[in-house]
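ingest -> validate -> predict -> emit
validate: passed (alphabet ok, no gaps, 252 aa)
predict: started
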Amino acid sequence: MAGHSKFKNIMHRKGRADAVRSKLFSKLSRDITIAAKMGMPDPNMNSRLRLAVAMAKAESMPKDNIERAIKKGASGEADNMEDIRYEGRGPGGIGLIVEALSDNRNRTAGNVRSYFSKFGGQMADTGSVSFMFDHLGEIKYPLKAGSADAVMEAAIEAGAADVETDEDPEEGGHTIYTAFEDLNEVAEALAKLLGDPKSTGFVWKAQSLTPVTGDPVRTLMKLIDALNEDDDVQNVYGNFDISDEDMEALGL
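emit:
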């Protein structure tokens, strides 16, 4: 099916241009804090913290905010925060993975369950959806980083697993995938070849996409929007494919 990458994408991630800036910084701070809590407060000695800090810098988060978030995690203020993953089915049988960071598991689970129920979906057991996805490292560069061939060559040299280039002048860019355990090594190698990336992190990439058309498209978008608006939800991934025509019908 034809469709722009932002509509076809297997991921709807918070922190895009339409997000409220203060809310974005709040979520980035939580990522940094939990990373500092789980390891050393030095990014050079803590790969998860290094990725969280890199993501924050890519979004122009002030240095003071980053340092404050690290100190909060190192001091134990985030001891009750935990990563949680939920899986479910949305309208049209679409598989969805929801990643959350919460200090109250019961609250977050109740909220996520209510969104699925309200918008034609259903929560599922852990593993019943994620088996249709690959958990990978993802490194993004803008188109100006180089031609598709140049980025591909750099990615191969750095040890990446795959590269996808979208030539759309507004929404396009280079997306480089790595094995989960290779992300840090590949990101550091690419930085020497292409400069600092636009973003770096882990994603759930669908192994195949499922077309969604008609009324289920509107309901699916409402479900994803509701999940993304929840303060505890960090990322939402799905295996849907929606055409331009259906998105335009929604005014998107």
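Residues 21-74 form a domain with the Arc Repressor Mutant, subunit A fold (CATH 1.10.10.200).
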